[in-house]
Amino acid sequence: MPSPRPQRRARGAAATFSSEPGRTPAQPAPEGGGDPRFAAWDPDAATAQGAGAYPFKVLAKGKPLDELLEALDKVQEEMGGAAAHIEARAQAVLTPPDAPWGKENIVGYGITEKRVRGQYTGRLGVTIFVKEKVPKSEIQASAVAPPDVSVGNKVFDTDVQIANPAPRSAVGAFASATDLQQQLRPAPCGSSVGHFRVTAGTLGALVVYRNGGHKRLGILSNNHILANVNFSQIGDNILQPGAADGGQDPGDRIAILDTFVRLVPGGAANFVDAAIAWTKPDLVSPFFGTDEETGFKIDPQPQLDPAIGMRVRKIGRTTGHTLGIITGTTSFPQFAYDPVDENGRRQQVVVAIENQLIIEGLDGDFFSQGGDSGSLIVEADTLRPVGLLFAGDTPGHGRRTYATPLSALLSASELGLDENSFVDAF
After folding, report:
1. What span, in angstroms and rounded, lies between the C-alpha atoms of 192 and 200?
2. Vertex 173, ends 366 and 363: CA angle to 5°?
3. Average pLDDT over residues 108-116
4. Distance between CA atoms of residues 370 and 176, nearest Å
5. What is the separation of C-alpha 320 from the centre of its chain, rounded to a whole number of angstroms?
C-alpha cells in the first residue's frame, strides 16, 4: 500500500531542529518521529569531511572485456587526458573564431553501441563525444579521433557522437510546474530541494549514514544541489522546495548540509557528485512521488552491477516519473558548473568526472531535464537503486542523461554509506 500523499504545509516559521534536552549525539533520541535508528537532530554537531577519489570500472552487460576498457583508456591517454582538455578550454577564448577546432570540442569519452547514420550496429566500441561535428579538415591534428583502436590482437570501433553535458539543476524553460515543486510535508523523494543559494534540484533518496561514528537520517542528492559545488558550509540550510520554486530561507528549511564529496577542479579525477543533508523523520517520506499510480517505494538493496540494456526509472522534480535504458558509460574531461558564491557572484568550476552511466529515455523521450539533478535512478522492475542522476545534454546536443553508479557512492568514505543505507520505510 503506497504511503499517503504528502500535504502542503502552510508557510510560516522554520521547522525547529534541536536535540532533546539532556541527550548527546551518542544517545539517539526519539525525536521527530520516534525512530531509534537515527541520532537526534543537532545542527551544532555537524562536522566537515575531507576529499577523495575512488578508482573503479563501471560494468556493462556481460562485464565488458578488459580489452575494451583498456581501449577506452588508451584513446583518452592519446588525446592528452583531462588536463589537456581543460587547458584547451581555457585557451579557446583567445583563439580566433576561424581557427581549427581543438580539444575544447571534446566533452567526453565512453563505451557505447556504435551508430552509423543514427542506427545502432550491435557492436560496443569507444565513443568520443563532441559539442559539434565538423569536417576533419577543420580540426587540429591533435584533436582528430582515431578510426579504431587496437589492444593486443583485437580492434575496436570508435564512434563520434554529439553531446554537451551540463548539470541538471533548475533553469529557464525546464522549470515547468509539477506537484513535486510544491512545499510538501512530509517531503517525498523526487520533490524539489536545494541549498539556499541553489535554484532547485531533486531529493534523491533517504539514507541512514554514519558521521563521526553516529547514525543519522539524511537526504541524498548531488553536491551541486545540496553543497553548491563546494561553495557552502557544513550546517547550511537546505530548503524544500528549492529557491527556484519559492522556497524561503529559513522558513522552508527541511535539512542542514552535513557531508559532501568535494569536486576537485584542474584535471584531478572525480567520481562522485554527491552530498547528504541531515533531516528528521517527521519532515520527509521514503515514498517516491506524490501520485499513487506512478509513485513507488524502492527495494533498498542497491544494484551494484548495472548493465547496458538495463531498463531504469526515476522520479524527479521537473519531469516526474520517466523510463529509460542504460546505453553506455562515459567520462568527462571538462565538465563545467556555475555555482553562486557567498557574495552572490557566479563562478565557473571545471572538473573531470569519470566512469558515469549514460541513460536515454524510451521512445526518444527525455529521461530528465533541468531540475532533475539528484534523482535516484532505480531498476525499472525490481526498484533497486542503480545510480544518482547529476547531468544531461543541453538542447540540440542529444537527449542523454548521466548518472553516478551506486558502487561509487558506496565507495565515497565522506558519505558514510553502505549497502544497507537506503530507507524504504520508517
Report:
1. 6
2. 15
3. 86
4. 9
5. 16
Q: Name residue 220's beta-bridge partners.
A: 205, 276
DSSP string, 337-369: E--B-TTS-B--EEEEEEEEEEEEEGGG--S--
Q: Which DSSP helix (H) or strand (E) runs through 82?
A: helix 81-92
**Helical (H) or strand (E) element with 327:** strand 320-337
Residues 350-367 pLDDT 10s: 898 999 999 999 877 889
Cα(234)–Cα(277) distance, integer angstroms: 9
Q: Other CB atoms closer than 10 Å to residue 97's CB: what's the count? A: 4
CA 115 vs CA 109, 158, 160: distances in Å: 15, 10, 9
Cβ pair 384, 424 in contact under 8 A: no
Residues 6+ apart with CB under 8 A from 306: 58, 59, 60, 326, 357, 386, 387, 405, 406
192-195 vs 201-202, strand pairing mode? antiparallel
Q: Which residues, at least 6 apart from 11, have a Cβ–Cβ distance to it below 8 Å?
A: 183, 248, 251, 252
- Report percent pLDDT > 70 for the chain: 82
Q: Which residue has the cell 537546505?
A: 238
234: left (phi over 0), alpha (psi -120 to 50) or beta: beta
> DSSP class of residue 108?
E
Cα separation, 365 vs 360, in Å, equals: 8
| Contacts of 21 by beta carbon, 8 Å cutoff, 6+ apart | none
- Pairing of the two strands 349-361 and 400-405: antiparallel
Q: What is the pTM of this model?
A: 0.84
* 307: confidence class by pLDDT, cuts 50, 70, 90: confident
Measured between alpha carbons, how far is 105 from 101 in angstroms, rounded to an integer? 7
Looking up cell 555555482 gives 339
Longest CA span, the chain = 74
Q: What is the pLDDT of residue 5?
A: 40
Which value, to the nearest 10 degrees, does the dihedral of the CA atoms of residues 250, 251, 252, 255 take? 50
Residue 416 burial (C-beta neighbours within 10 Å; 0-12, 13-18, 19+): buried
392's grid cell = 544531461
